[in-house]
Amino acid sequence: MLDLGTSFLASVARDPGAIAIVDGDLRLTYRNWLGRIGAVVAAFDRLGLKPGDHLVSVLQNRFEAATLHWACQFAGIVITPINWRSKADEIDFALENAEAKALVFEEVSAEAVRGATRATGLLTIAVGTSLDGAVPFAALLAEAAPEPMPRAGADAWSIMLYTSGTTSRPKGVPRRHRAERAAGIAHVAQNLYRRGEVTLGVMPLYHTMGVRSLLAMSVIGGTFVCLPRYDTKSALALIERERVTNLYLVPTLYHDLVHDPAFAATDVSSVRKLGFAGASMTDGLLKKLDAEFSPELFVNHYGSSEIYTFTIDQKAILKPGSAGRAGINQMVRVVRLGAQSAAEIAAEGEEGEIIALLAGDESFEGYWRRPEADAKSLRDGWYFTGDTGFMDADGDLFVTGRVDDMIITGGENVSPVEIESCLSLHPAVSEVAVVGLPDEKWGKIVVAFVKRAAPVEASELDAWCRTSGLANFKRPRRFVFVAEIPKSPVGKLLRRQLVAGEYVAEADAAHSAA
């Protein structure tokens, strides 16, 4: 298996004149970009960075972030990207946890960096802004340098991503060059990407989806079109201007894209392949996307930072809710809820915990200095994902939620995803999230939080559920109409905020169903 630096050199040799990256008015071919990358590698040497060092970046999706990523691959430095919205204490945690030797930031993250105590005295690099003692990123590019030579082998660490840390401090997920490249190649194969594809680089480069898009384009001489911060009108303008051929987004971003008033007037005919990951997609959104784009390929990709691909379904529209079958580098199982062994396989149709084989080429090998997390998640050579799901009679996987999201009401297990898919098909429902809230009689009751697209009352939505075939015990017992559904920066539903009451309700707040 090639290391990523050698992989990039092979791409330059294959497609030297192809456009590799676009950021606003900046357009670089693979040959031109290699020169900029080489300059940054040489600057790392001058600054005293060495193979194995961690470099923490707090950047949006821009040319500098992508260039840093590739320069680190050549230099053997472990790129450690974190959310550009991170607060000072979160930056301090990453710097300490990774034992970082350098920090790169921009204007949007500068205030948090100023407040980070561990940034004091550390090598800092400023992109498009300034800070006392910080090296301007432009200075890294100022001196010409020879073509960079890879200094890391396939078994060296490439990147360390951090999990979202919804219940505790984020966990570092270190990944090797070989695992990253295997994931990039699998992404090309499973999405049927052709040479010269153009993708919208909007999923953040601190998230596995963004990194995979970047690497996949390099493998096929494709173009990565930077969109630093998601904005639907900017996204639509770039799709039309750059003739984007594939989109790989979380469902929330697709929802915003097709519901933007500018969508109808935008030429999106160049987009022939749609891929989504990060969350389940409702039946209603699947149908709308299929109608608007008529894609050649519509892929549901189910995976994680730890093991990139679990399963894929390349015909998502034909079987709504299905995550398909194991990816080309993987095997998956569903084991009984609470299982301690990978041998406790759930029956067909039985909801359980999804587990994935750790021996796959894309797999990580354990969390960064978190033995207790390893003990919980890594067993018998399998990764216990914490996700719930079941296998149907065809052998297709359906992901129903998180073990922690399961609603136990009156002794029955209820998955939020099934109810959300049902309600999403109602024309007056824009977005919906379902959680369990405490109840003296039932333990928990099913509550649906709804963002309305048109006037509708709880009684009408309850009738919709009654006639949809949804089991009676799964029907929401309460509907709450909200201004917005809380989401993470990459579009995942934040159910815990709804449970905690952290949402903005409409003026008429809560409505109860009979």
From TrEMBL:
Keyword Transmembrane annotated: no
Q: Which UniProt keywords apply?
A: Ligase
Q: Tell me the Gene Ontology biological-process terms attached to this UniProt entry.
A: fatty acid metabolic process
Checking InterPro entries in the record gives: AMP-bd_C, AMP-bd_C_sf, AMP-binding_CS, AMP-dep_synth/lig_dom, ANL_N_sf
Residue intervals of the AMP-dependent synthetase/ligase domain: 10-368
Q: Could you tell me which Gene3D superfamilies the record lists for this protein?
A: 3.30.300.30, N-terminal domain of ligase-like
Query: Could you tell me which residue ranges the AMP-binding enzyme C-terminal domain spans?
Result: 418-492
Query: Pfam families, from UniProt?
Result: AMP-binding, AMP-binding_C
Q: Name one GO molecular function term.
A: medium-chain fatty acid-CoA ligase activity
- Domain of life, per UniProt, equals Bacteria
* EC code: 6.2.1.31
What stretches pass through the bilayer? none
Spell out the family assignment given in the record's similarity comment: Belongs to the ATP-dependent AMP-binding enzyme family.
Output the PANTHER family linked to this UniProt entry: ACYL-COA SYNTHETASE (PTHR43201), MEDIUM-CHAIN ACYL-COA LIGASE ACSF2, MITOCHONDRIAL (PTHR43201:SF5)
Name of the protein in its database record: 2-furoate---CoA ligase
What are the top taxonomic ranks of the organism?
Bacteria, Pseudomonadati, Pseudomonadota, Alphaproteobacteria, Hyphomicrobiales
